[in-house]
């Protein structure tokens, strides 16, 4: 792919050429000025170089660079619009498969946001959890179960015990979602946004001790975005009513997740989860579902 040209890259060449040309011109002009003191010579040298260099830099670098930055900002705005359109389309695809997505998305998005900013304040993964990246994480959180579109409804909605074959199909939804998002990548869309969505979709069922799926990643090998999503997703599943179970109380759900700190979940994310309990309770009680969610007979 052809590398884009950036006007600022020509600055060094422009400065070298103009300074050399200016010095040559000065050598021709100075003799006509007669005998000058050293200070006067330096002053004339600087003045002439400025008169030559500044206009050249302005016309060959500054003006093109201003236009380049303007075009870049315009392109970013267009990309943002296209990103939003793409995410909206993918969300609609997920919602078409999941009649509980509306409330689930609202809750898990807010849980993810709470956890991410709490972890940021704790100084955890500072290279990843910047304000900008957290905003992207919250934006793509609804796509964590996008891969369910590839799972037959009779398996997703089954109220009884799943067979081993059916479990294998369920387990495949993480990779299906990751692959759908990979196919949605484009040079015109921000790579980091899609990459974040892929990490969330593909790894949010991994477990800290390596017993999760689909790749049996463990510890820090699991992307931090997925570790955050995992706690948010499991908590919401526990406190929600399912055809095969009643909703757990918040107390029970907290006890379950805390008991699996270090096995299923990143211990530091669980610390953030504990610290945000009041806010989690507020979201759980405020954002309720109007329709009973469908069954998924495994965690």
Explain what you see:
64% of the residues lie in helices and 0% in strands. By secondary structure, it is mostly helical. It folds into 2 domains: 65 residues, no CATH class; 189 residues, Hypothetical protein af1432 (Orthogonal Bundle). The two termini are 44 Å apart. The relative contact order is 0.10. The C terminus is likely disordered.
Q: Strand percentage, roughly?
A: under 5%
CATH homologous superfamily identity of the largest domain: Hypothetical protein af1432
CATH architecture of the largest domain: Orthogonal Bundle
Instruction: Measure the end-to-end span.
Output: 44 Å
Helix content: 55-70%
Number of strands: 0
Given the helix and strand composition, which structural class is it? mainly alpha
Short description:
With 299 residues, this protein is mostly helical. Helix content is 64%, strand content 0%.
Keywords for this structure?
membrane; mainly alpha; HD/PDEase_dom; disordered C terminus; Hypothetical protein af1432; 12 helices; 299 residues; HD_GYP_dom; HD-GYP domain-containing protein; 2 domains; 64% helix
Write the layout of secondary structure elements.
Blueprint: H1 11-29, H2 38-97, H3 101-121, H4 131-140, H5 153-156, H6 164-171, H7 173-183, H8 191-203, H9 224-238, H10 250-259, H11 267-275, H12 277-286
Helix pairs in contact: 1-2, 3-4, 3-9, 3-11, 3-12, 7-8, 8-9, 9-10
């Amino acid at each position: 792919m052809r590398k884009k040209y950036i006007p600022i890259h020509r600055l060094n060449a422009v400065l070298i050429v103009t300074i050399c040309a200016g010095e040559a011109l000065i050598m021709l002009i100075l003799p006509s000025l007669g005998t000058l003191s050293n200070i006067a010579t330096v002053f004339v040298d600087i003045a002439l170089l400025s008169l030559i260099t500044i206009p050249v830099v302005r016309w060959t670098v500054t003006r093109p660079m201003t236009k380049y930055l303007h075009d870049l900002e315009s392109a970013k705005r267009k990309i943002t619009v296209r990103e939003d359109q793409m995410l909206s389309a993918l969300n609609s695809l997920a919602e078409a498969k999941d009649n509980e997505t509306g409330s689930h998305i609202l809750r898990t998005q807010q849980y993810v946001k709470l956890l991410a900013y709490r972890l940021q304040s704790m100084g955890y993964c500072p290279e990843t959890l910047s304000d900008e990246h957290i905003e992207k994480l919250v934006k793509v959180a609804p796509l964590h179960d996008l891969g369910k579109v590839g799972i037959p409804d009779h398996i997703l909605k089954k109220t009884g015990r799943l067979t081993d074959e059916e479990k294998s199909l369920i387990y495949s939804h993480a990779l299906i979602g990751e692959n759908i998002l990979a196919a949605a990548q484009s040079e015109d869309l921000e790579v980091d946004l899609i990459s974040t969505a892929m990490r969330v979709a593909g790894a949010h069922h991994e477990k800290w001790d390596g017993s999760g799926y689909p790749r049996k990643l463990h510890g820090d090998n699991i992307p931090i975005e997925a570790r955050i999503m995992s706690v948010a997703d499991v908590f919401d599943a526990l406190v929600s009513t399912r055809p095969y179970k009643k909703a757990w109380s918040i107390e029970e759900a907290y006890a379950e997740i805390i008991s699996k700190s270090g096995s299923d979940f990143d211990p530091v994310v669980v610390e953030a989860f504990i610290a945000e309990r009041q806010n989690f309770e507020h979201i759980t009680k405020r954002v309720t579902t109007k329709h009973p969610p469908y069954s998924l007979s495994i965690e």
